Each structure stands twice: as C-alpha cells, then as structure tokens.
Amino acid sequence: MARSRSLAALAVASAAALAGASPPAASEHLLLQAAEAQLLARARRRPPLAQRLVLADGQIAQSLRRSRMDPHELASAVGGGIVAILEAVGHFTAVPPRIGEGIGALGRNLLRVVDPLREQFNNTAEFEDFQREWNQFFDDVPELVDGVQEKITNFTENGRPDLLVLAIGDILVTLSDGVMKFVPHQTALEVVKYVDSVGDILNAIGISWSGFESGQEIQAIEDLYYGLRAAVEQMTPEDLRNDATYKLVIGTLDGVVANLSDTVLSFQKHMVEGAVCWKVQGSRHRKRPHICADGYLWNGERFCLPRPAGSTPSSFVSLEAATSRKSEGGAVDSAAGQKREVPDGMVVASCEDGSPFSEVVNHWCYAPCPAGMVALGLQCRTACHGEFPADDGAMMCGHSGEAIAGAIMNMVVQLSSSAVEAGLRIKNLVDHGVDTDALVKTIAAFTDMGKPFAYNNCPIVAPTGSESPYATVSS
C-alpha cells in the first residue's frame, strides 16, 4: 500500500507540474521524496549472490574450463587441494588435537582450488559473499557429515590412516553435494570436478598407504601412480591426455604427496610405537639354602653334613648317587651331574622361613620379584598395567589387544618383505609402466618409512615404598 501511495503521489505531482498547477503541499513533497528514495534504493541494491552467479554462470564455468586446459594450472589447483589436506592433518596430529581448526583450515585452503572464481566477480565484496557461504559449510561439517568427528578422533588416538582418508573423503563428497545447491549448474559442474579430483587423489594415496602397511610396497607405488593418473585424466581435456601431461602433473604433485605420506605415516608409526612396549626381563635374586637341622652342619653350598663325632666317616658316595635317593629331597640342580664326592649321610639344607629368600626352586632360595614385575619361572618380567594393560602372554604389553596385534603384524611384514630395503625395486616398477621419475620424492618417503618400528621398554611402576631390591632386571 505504501508503495502504491508513493507511486500515486509521484504521478499526481507530475501531472500537476505539466498542467501548470501550483506546487504541491508540504505533505505531497514528503511523498515525492519517499518515492524517489525507494526508487534509488532499488536501483542501487545488488541482486543476491545466487542470482548474480546465475547471470555469470557460463562465463565462470568457461574460466574454470580454461584453467584445466593448462597442465601447470591444473597441477597447481589439485596440488593446492592436497596442501589443504596436509595443513588439516597438521592440526589433527597436534597435542592436543585441534579438530575444529583442522576442518576450518581444510575449507579455507580448498577455496584456492576454485580460485578462478574470484576473477569473475565484479568486486571483492561479491567474492566475499561466496567465500562466506563456502566457509560456513566447513563450520557446520561436524553437524552435516555423520561420524566425521569420530573418525578423525580415532585417527588421532590410534594413528589409523584409513579413518583419516574416510573422514576427509566424506567431507569432500558432502561439499560436492552442497556446491550443487548454492552454485548454478555449469559452475557447479566445474567446481565439483576439482573437489572430486582432490578426493580421488586422496583415495589413491590412502590405498597406497594400506599396501605399504601390508608389506606390498611395489604394488602400493604402482597403485598410487595409476590412481593419480586416473584422477588427472578425468580433469584433463581429451587432446591433452598424454604421457607428457601426466608426467608434468604427477611430477608436480610428487612433493606434496610425499609430504602428506611422510606426515601421516610418521604419525602412525609414532602412535603404534607408543601403543606397545617390550617387557623388561631379568633374573630373580637367589641364595643357597643354609638352614640345617640339629646335629648337622652347613657345608657352605647346599647340603647339611652330619656333625663329626671325633672320627672321619669311612664311606663316601658320589653326589650323583647321593641325590638319587628320595629320602634326601629328590633331584637337585644341574650341578648334580658333576662328579663330586661328599660324605654319606648328608641332607639338603633348607631356606629360611620368613626371609626374603624363602621360595625353594631346584635347591635354591629365591626372592620375590620387585613390585611392578611378575615371576615367570626363574625370571621376572614387567607386569602389564597402567598405560599398557593388555598382555600378549609373551614379551609385549600394549594399550589394547588390537595395538599388540598391529605391532606384531608390522614386525612380521618387515621381516618378510625386502622391497623397501631393495629400494622398492625401481626397475620392477618401470617394467609395469610406472613413471618412477614422476614419483621420486614419494618413493623416497616410502623407503624411509620402511625402517623397522622401535618399541620402548615397558615402565616398571611400583607403589611407593613397595619396591623390592631382590631382582636383577635387564631389557
């Protein structure tokens, strides 16, 4: 109604002026001013972002297509996507992990993948509108993408690269779907090509990590090369799909792929090494039994001899024969096999009840293991507890049974595979059509990560004041 009255007032004023009538009253002047202000505001008001993008849709899409026709620009764009992932991983692997900051950094850096959009806007303010909507998506990722925060958290706690790949892959897929909603058709198709290519490259890298973990290093590099090539091929116009283009783009990606692989696999190695430990093992302290019954004297070793009655015993038997009689305590330790003659009538000495050396084992008196360790026969081993509660029943403790199983698998793989130590058998890769010159840095990163895992000794944690001195331990 106000708009109608304003337009009507404007029409009346115009008609009166044409007819030579007297100037309108003050109220009419106010109506005229209001009408003019509304018209000017409408003239100056910019169309919303979506409408402006629709108007420029073809032009923007053409600009993005042109950038894909230059292998250098293509490599720079998709390489920027991997750099974005690398920066996000830097936040995820911090102590403590910065998951929100990492997702935000991923969004800001991925925006560079579609940077040609900036040129198609009339001014910075217009691009800022697009950028604001883009960044808002990444702010909302934990709510938009199911399970993404749990996957990243699991990666930061257990060092599982597969969960990192799944989490970022889910984000990229959801981003592609979102772009289709707030960007017009032709532009959206081009933006989605870039985002999907980054996802395909990350997936190829993730497959190579899995192959590396399982000891299939040659296959891992081969899968990575052809995975990168397939991702590049989807982005490249048909007339540029040749070995020279693939070599240039993959060679450009080599450095950032190597950095991402080294960062993730080093973090995994750190987490795995910290998740298990070797038990500390050592011999228990022992003493010879020295308690003899009345009428007997300890001989300084392990026997009690009848107290002499002023005469020397006339008969002697070998130690081997003497210790074969059940009445004298049965078998003794390995020293029993030595031919040593002792007086007949000897008996085995006893350990002292209530002393630290009260446990009788094979004619020795053993002390208990120190607190924090458990007895295993004649040895003491670290008790699995605290940070490392899981016990493999042998020589390892771990955060969990899964951590121990993973550590054992890593050791088996490293023992059974010589591919890394042999420099990944470069010639074998070339024979399969892999351009190893394009992946020099990535191959070097894989080779370096093929070094054996190093596990620390388990800590021996004992309650205050409960430590026993009666054990000699060694790693």
Question: Which features characterize this protein?
Answer:
475 residues, alpha+beta, 3 domains, 15 strands, 55% helix, 10% strand, disordered N terminus
Q: Would you write up a description of this structure?
A:
The chain is α+β, with helices and mostly antiparallel strands. The chain has 3 domains: 2-45; 52-275, no CATH class; 286-366, no CATH class. Helix content is 55%, strand content 10%. The chain is built from 18 helices and 15 strands. It has helices at residues 2-18, 26-44, 49-55, 57-68, 71-92, 99-110, 116-119, 124-139, 141-144, 148-158, 161-182, 185-213, 217-235, 243-275, 319-322, 401-416, 426-431, 440-449; strands spanning 276-278, 281-284, 286-287, 296-298, 303-306, 316-318, 341-343, 347-348, 359-361, 364-366, 373-376, 379-382, 390-391, 396-398, 471-474. Strands 11-12-2-15 form a 4-stranded antiparallel beta sheet, with no helix packed on it. Helix 8 crosses helix 11 and helix 11 runs antiparallel to helix 12 (185-213). The longest helix is centred in the middle third of the chain and has 33 residues, at 243-275. It starts with a helix and ends with a strand.
